[in-house]
Each structure stands twice: as structure tokens, then as C-alpha cells.
Amino acid sequence: MSAGINIKNKKARFEFEFIETYTAGIVLTGTEIKSIRASKASIGESYGVVSKNEIIIRNMYVQQYDNGTHYNHEPRRDRKLLLNRSEINKIDRKIKAKGLTLVPVSLFINNKGLAKLEIALAKGKKIHDKREDLKKKDAKREVERRLK
Are the CB atoms for 23 and 131 separated by under 8 Å? Predict the structure, then answer.
């Protein structure tokens, strides 16, 4: 199995402060999983919503499979996430009450060959918080440079 696939949303850590993370399965078609296994996907602009007691990932890009026929999938269609009912209810309550956002963090293939999406309940950072993170990162990099 190609368990080495790991597509990350690098901007998410910079733009948001993560409160809780969950690992969810994704309902995919045959050509979508083949494209993901070829690392032809992006979760940079995607986000999660709760509708009809289901969690849907919107705007996730999965490139059309090269060898697909007329049965190929749409690149930016809505995809259902697979979570327990209690987790869905908990996420729904927190999104409505606290104004949090559901952000995808990483897309990966587990040991069984199934596509999984790590999602996080997140709160948007303010500009000064982003600046603090950049200062901490620069200081850490400087310390590592001096130790060499």
C-alpha cells in the first residue's frame, strides 16, 4: 500500500488556532482515491460545514484521474466525512455556540489503504497573534543556527 501520501494544509496553522482535532474518513469515488494516491489533491482552500447532521468538506480539490473515462469525478464537489454521531453533534454545538470553524489539516492514506482527513475545530488568529508566531519561529531558527 502507498501509506506515504500525506497532503498538508500549511496555512492552517498560521491562520488558525486549533482547539480540537478529529480524524475522519471520506466518502470517495474510485477515480478520486486513485488521484489522491497519486498526490493530486489540495486541501488549502477547503473548509467543513455541518448540514443535515452530516459533516461535508467543501472546495477540496481532487484532480481528475488521467486514465479515467467519462465516469470521472468533478474536481471540487462536496464530499461527506465519516464520523461518529456523538462527534458530529459535539462539533455542531461548538460551531454554533462559539463561532468556530472546521478546518482540514491533513489528508493521508492509512495502513489499510483508506483515505483519511484530519480536521480541526479552529479559531481565527488576530494579526498580532500571527506576528508573535513568526517571532517565535525566527527565534527558534536562530537558536538552532547558533548551536551548529
Answer: no
CA dist 73 and 36 (Å) reads 12
pLDDT tens for 8-55 read 988 888 888 899 999 999 999 888 888 888 888 999 999 999 999 999
Amino acid making up residue 20: E
Stated pTM of the model: 0.79
Q: What span, in angstroms and rounded, lies between the C-alpha atoms of 113 and 37?
A: 9
- Domain 6-147 bears CATH identifier 2.40.50.1000: no
Q: In the chain, where are the structural domains located? A: 6-147
* Contact present, 44 and 146 (Cβ < 8 Å): no
Other C-beta atoms lying within 10 Å of the C-beta of residue 116: 17
Q: Residue 136 in 3-state DSSP?
A: helix
Question: Locate cell 474518513: which residue?
Answer: 25
